[in-house]
């Protein structure tokens, strides 16, 4: 594969990962669900896995309802074919307007129809739910 082909392949992988996180950052559950197969598995750190679109929808509706905004700033992306691992700093905007930023690593896997069947999110959410003064 030529270096131009490698660049094109990396860009193609980057495009879907970037698009996914761009949609996630809108806090639109509908946009997020459009990415998932019916049998999606979502994991937040060491919490029990969430299985299926309906359970994922409920979890994200609850989580998003506690936020006013969210944005990911990518630090690194490792991807091949339909697997991707992104290391980022995510900034959450609380309902009171305060912000807290923390590192996150996300593992995504797409299947044949280009939908995500696995989203594992490795993050310590404790600072998000702590007091605003402690997160600054």
Task: Provide keyphrases for this structure.
alpha+beta, Nuclear Transport Factor 2, Chain: A, six-stranded mixed β-sheet, disordered N terminus
Explain this structure.
With 136 residues, the chain is an alpha+beta fold. The protein has a single domain, classed as Nuclear Transport Factor 2, Chain: A (Roll), CATH 3.10.450. It is 32% helix and 41% strand. The protein has a 6-stranded mixed sheet, covered by helices on one side. The N and C termini lie far apart (47 Å). Residues 1-11 have low confidence and may be disordered.
CATH class: Alpha Beta
How would the global form be characterised?
Answer: globular
The figure for the number of domains is: 1
Secondary-structure-based class equals alpha+beta
Gist?
By secondary structure, the chain is an alpha+beta fold. It is built from four helices and six strands, in the order ααββαββββα.
